[in-house]
């Protein structure tokens, strides 16, 4: 510990931390913009400047380490003026379209300008026009709202190891962009949206599909069917001032019905179905095709794209099982349409997902059934929030509603898909039954849980010991794959979720105060995941194979796992 003073008050703080961290530790808020703890500590924006006794120039507190006897001033006239002028300069070349911006009222730059009392921009003159790009199905970039903070770059490089962005040009012309300003579809982007979560302004956002969905809802000839991902049930409430991780399943279903969706299905049901197919693939490979081990999970489209981009030689290892969201769309336009005598051309399927990569996944040409796209539109959690706000629904006070048959009942296993390790835990529960014919005495597989980025473990099923790995954040996935390729580690099954925390930390989730990326986003993810695990614990049915809807789907349509019909509608291929 070292002794310092901040604004004439004595404190003891850990040695070596930055002045910014020390101040926040003692509840003195120094404003910042480019700083993201642990991943972007570069002192570039100069918003966090402070005075240090004995040093002439103002110092960026995010990169200035504390030391014994340091005397810091955070609120002098000189400091206030410098911060104001740094932000005013940024605003002078920023397309200030706040009223119509996707991040209006949720923009860190806007918030900062207000907090610093900036009421006019004295610098006039021509603004740069760097353009706009949205030539891909998932993510758009408005270069005119970029403030060169490099937070997107840090998220993409440090968390995802996709290295899409770098600074282009020099001086005033500097922009943060993919090489040669290419579209994200033409570089190694996996469409995960982690850069959107990191962006403090409206420079990065998902490609909105809200107007297409309203159009479908207003068309009397269309039957518009929503499905909701497991994690949405524990995240959307946060946008309506409810506690982090609060379970709001019933309000979610009611809100979708009030918006005009004809039916609301739970993707959790087809998460159970994914386990039936993928669990059977795992058992099949363990017994018949050990050369195709490890089996790599494939329900996360960001991870699939990562594997396609960087490890094309391993695509045979990916499970061919489609993701739950695609399965739900496929079954809706085939089995469900036939069962309820509906012309599938009249059905519009809309998936509410925590994920921008799901927009890309839904657009893949192989994601069709009998000529129809499985999922017509994907809305992120944020887009659904906008629709709910648009019509003035009081989300927190909505009455309860139930999901619609036959995608209404799901197991605890289907629900924990939304957290890192959940798919693997669900698969273990069913693999145990498939291999031994018996249920696990305790379905909880605690080793699979928690926020550590890469976990290795073993699980005993009958007389077999299965080795497993779980990674979240594709940087960790790369470590696992390299460990496997070099022979350093051996595992039979690897679960990867591209986003830190799994879908609860997805790139389409509500953007909360992410000033302190590591600390805050971690605690959010914990709360969200904990709720999923608690609900799982409280469920009577906790295994995918015990879900009565799964029995029904196999009886009425698919026959058995890995049948010809399953292969036709529920399995896919990958493209190197
Ligand atoms: Fe997910 Fe999945 S868990 S990928 O994270 O397998 O998006 O929530 O819907 O498809 O079920 C996302 C979440 C989601 C799929 C399922
Ligand atoms: Fe990088 Fe993901 Fe953003 Fe693509 S979507 S640029 S991979 S962080």
TrEMBL record:
InterPro entries: 2Fe-2S_ferredoxin-like_sf, 2Fe-2S_ferredoxin-type, 4Fe4S_Fe-S-bd, 4Fe4S_Fe_S_CS, Cytosolic_Fe-S_CAF, Fe_hydrogenase, Fe_hydrogenase_lsu_C, Fe_hydrogenase_ssu. Keywords: 4Fe-4S, Iron, Iron-sulfur, Metal-binding. The keyword Iron applies. Residues 78-117 form the 4Fe-4S His(Cys)3-ligated-type domain. It comes from the Bacteria. This is NADH-dependent [FeFe] hydrogenase, group A6. Its cofactor is [4Fe-4S] cluster. Pfam families: Fe_hyd_lg_C, Fe_hyd_SSU, Fer2_4, NADH-G_4Fe-4S_3. PROSITE patterns: 2FE2S_FER_2, 4FE4S_FER_1, 4FE4S_FER_2, 4FE4S_HC3, COMPLEX1_75K_1. NCBIfam families: FeFe_hydrog_A, FeFe_hydrog_A6. Residues 137-168, 178-209 form the 4Fe-4S ferredoxin-type domain. It comes from Tepidibacter hydrothermalis. Residues 1-78 form the 2Fe-2S ferredoxin-type domain. SUPFAM superfamilies: 2Fe-2S ferredoxin-like, 4Fe-4S ferredoxins, Fe-only hydrogenase.
């Amino acid at each position: 510990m070292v002794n310092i003073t901040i604004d004439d008050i004595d404190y003891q703080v850990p040695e070596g931390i930055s002045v910014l961290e020390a101040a926040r530790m003692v509840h003195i808020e120094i404003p910042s913009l480019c700083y993201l703890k642990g991943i972007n500590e570069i002192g570039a924006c100069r918003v966090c400047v402070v005075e240090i006794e004995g040093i002439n120039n103002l110092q960026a507190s995010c990169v200035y380490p504390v030391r014994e006897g340091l005397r810091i001033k955070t609120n002098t006239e000189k400091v206030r003026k410098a911060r104001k002028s740094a932000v005013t300069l940024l605003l002078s070349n920023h397309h200030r379209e706040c009223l119509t911006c996707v991040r209006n009222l949720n923009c860190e730059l806007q918030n900062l300008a207000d907090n610093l009392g900036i009421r006019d921009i004295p610098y006039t003159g021509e603004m740069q026009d760097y353009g706009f790009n949205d030539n891909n199905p998932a993510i758009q970039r408005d270069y005119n709202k970029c403030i060169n903070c490099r937070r997107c770059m840090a998220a993409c490089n440090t968390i995802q190891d996709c290295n899409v962005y770098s600074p282009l040009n020099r001086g005033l012309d500097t922009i943060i962009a993919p090489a040669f300003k290419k579209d994200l579809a033409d570089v190694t982007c996996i469409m995960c949206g982690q850069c959107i979560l990191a962006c403090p302004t409206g420079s990065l956002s998902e490609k909105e599909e809200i107007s297409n969905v309203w159009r479908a809802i207003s068309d009397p000839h269309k039957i518009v069917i929503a499905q909701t991902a497991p994690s949405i049930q524990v995240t959307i409430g946060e946008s309506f001032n409810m506690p982090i991780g609060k379970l709001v399943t019933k309000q979610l279903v009611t809100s979708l019905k009030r918006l005009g969706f004809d039916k609301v299905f739970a993707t959790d049901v087809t998460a159970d179905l994914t386990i039936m197919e993928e669990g059977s693939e795992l058992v099949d490979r363990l017994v018949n095709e050990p050369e195709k081990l490890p089996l790599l999970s494939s329900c996360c489209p960001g991870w699939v794209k990562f594997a396609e981009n960087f490890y094309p030689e391993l695509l045979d290892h990916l499970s061919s099982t489609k993701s739950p969201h695609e399965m739900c769309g496929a079954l809706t336009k085939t089995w469900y349409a036939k069962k309820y005598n509906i012309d599938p051309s009249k059905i519009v399927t809309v998936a509410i997902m925590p994920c921008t990569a799901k927009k890309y996944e839904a657009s893949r040409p192989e994601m069709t059934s009998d000529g129809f796209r499985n999922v017509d539109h994907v809305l992120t959690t944020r887009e659904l929030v906008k629709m709910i706000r648009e019509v003035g629904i009081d989300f927190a006070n909505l009455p309860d509603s139930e999901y619609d048959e036959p995608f209404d009942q799901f197991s605890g296993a289907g629900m924990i898909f939304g957290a890192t390790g959940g798919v693997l835990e669900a698969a273990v529960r069913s693999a145990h039954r498939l291999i031994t014919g018996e249920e696990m005495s305790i379905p909880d597989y605690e080793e699979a849980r928690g926020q550590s980025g890469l976990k290795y473990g073993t699980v005993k099923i009958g007389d077999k010991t299965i080795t497993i790995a779980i990674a979240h954040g594709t940087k960790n996935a790369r470590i696992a794959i390299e460990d496997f390729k070099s022979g350093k580690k051996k595992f039979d099954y690897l679960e990867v979720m591209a986003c830190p925390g799994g879908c609860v930390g997805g790139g389409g989730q509500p953007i909360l105060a992410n000033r302190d990326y590591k600390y805050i986003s971690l605690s959010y993810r914990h709360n969200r995941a904990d709720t999923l695990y608690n609900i799982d614990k409280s469920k009577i049915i906790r295994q995918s194979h015990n879900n009565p809807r799964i029995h029904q789907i196999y009886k009425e349509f698919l026959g058995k796992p890995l049948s010809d019909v399953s292969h036709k509608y529920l399995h896919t291929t990958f493209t190197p």
